């Protein structure tokens, strides 16, 4: 996935009200950027760190920039939570994720029961519902999800179990937007209920794909599937 337009470099002054961040551009101008990440952003929030912003396509939008990434420990961490969905659609459509390739049709935002999943993929032999989650939390050498309690995420796991019961593939695709981790795990200390439901879902046949990607000012590229540990 490539960014549509050149990104703008700056330095993080502070994040506030969850969805806003003050950024000092290299020119010295201070701008307010939209932060799509509604979580705590624990382990990827450091005042004074380098950041990159994307200019808003809509000239009438109140915030003229979207915060895309931050440099932590010498590497870029993607914090735009809308990018993983776009990236996942691109990668599954192009057959670039081992185990999630070979689909002839891939659609976004498809409803099953009372849930709406990020991707629906099919070919002549199978149907597959895929829920995509952004992962930015690091704890030791592990990437973890979630970084805040997510009742919506718990509901998705429950519905994926129903998908599997009806004979279709059910997949949790975790897009890990940092490369300084070695494996993936549920954040039990933050949301123990989600962690329990993920284990139940996996036992029921829901598949887990923790995909590490490399974020740069040019774009986002897939790197490898990490092991999931519990």
TrEMBL record:
Residues 83-217 form the Sugar fermentation stimulation protein C-terminal domain. Residues 13-79 form the SfsA N-terminal OB domain. Gene3D superfamilies: 2.40.50.580, 3.40.1350.60. Belongs to the SfsA family. This is Sugar fermentation stimulation protein homolog. It holds the Pfam family SfsA_N. The gene is sfsA. One of its GO terms (molecular function) is DNA binding. HAMAP family: SfsA. It comes from the Bacteria.
């Amino acid at each position: 996935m490539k960014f549509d337009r050149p990104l703008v470099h700056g330095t993080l002054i502070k994040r506030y009200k969850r969805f806003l961040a003050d950024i000092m551009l290299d020119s010295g101008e201070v701008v307010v950027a939209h932060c799509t990440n509604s979580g705590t952003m624990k382990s990827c929030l450091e005042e004074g760190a380098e950041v990159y912003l994307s200019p808003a396509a809509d000239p009438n939008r109140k915030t003229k920039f979207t915060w895309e990434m931050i440099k932590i420990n010498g590497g870029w961490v993607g914090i735009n939570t809308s990018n993983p969905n776009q990236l996942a659609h691109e990668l599954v459509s192009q057959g670039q994720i081992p185990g999630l390739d070979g689909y002839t049709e891939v659609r976004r935002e498809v409803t099953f029961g009372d849930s709406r999943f990020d991707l629906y993929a099919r070919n002549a032999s199978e149907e597959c519902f895929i829920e995509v989650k952004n992962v930015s939390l690091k704890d030791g050498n592990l990437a973890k999800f979630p970084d805040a309690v997510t009742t919506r995420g718990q509901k998705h796991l429950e519905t994926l179990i129903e998908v599997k019961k009806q004979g279709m593939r059910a997949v949790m695709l975790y897009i890990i937007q940092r490369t300084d981790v070695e494996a993936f795990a549920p954040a039990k200390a933050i949301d123990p209920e989600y962690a329990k439901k993920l284990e139940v879902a996996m036992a029921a046949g829901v598949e887990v794909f923790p995909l590490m990607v490399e974020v740069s000012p040019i774009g986002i590229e897939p790197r490898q599937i990490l092991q999931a540990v519990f």
